[in-house]
Amino acid sequence: MSTLLRVDGIEVGYGDLTAVRDVSLEVREGEAVALIGANGAGKTTTLRAVSGLLPLRRGRIEFEGQRLDGLRPAQVVARGIAHVPEGRQLFPSMTVLENLELGARTRAARIASSETLAEVFDLFPRLRERRSQLAGTLSGGEQQMCAIGRGLMARPRLLMLDEPSLGLAPVMVKAIFEDLGRINGLGITILLVEQNVLRSLHLAHRGYVLENGRMTLSGLRQDLLASGHIKQAYLGL
Question: Degrees (nearest 5) of the Cα angle 62, 75, 185?
Answer without folding.
Answer: 65
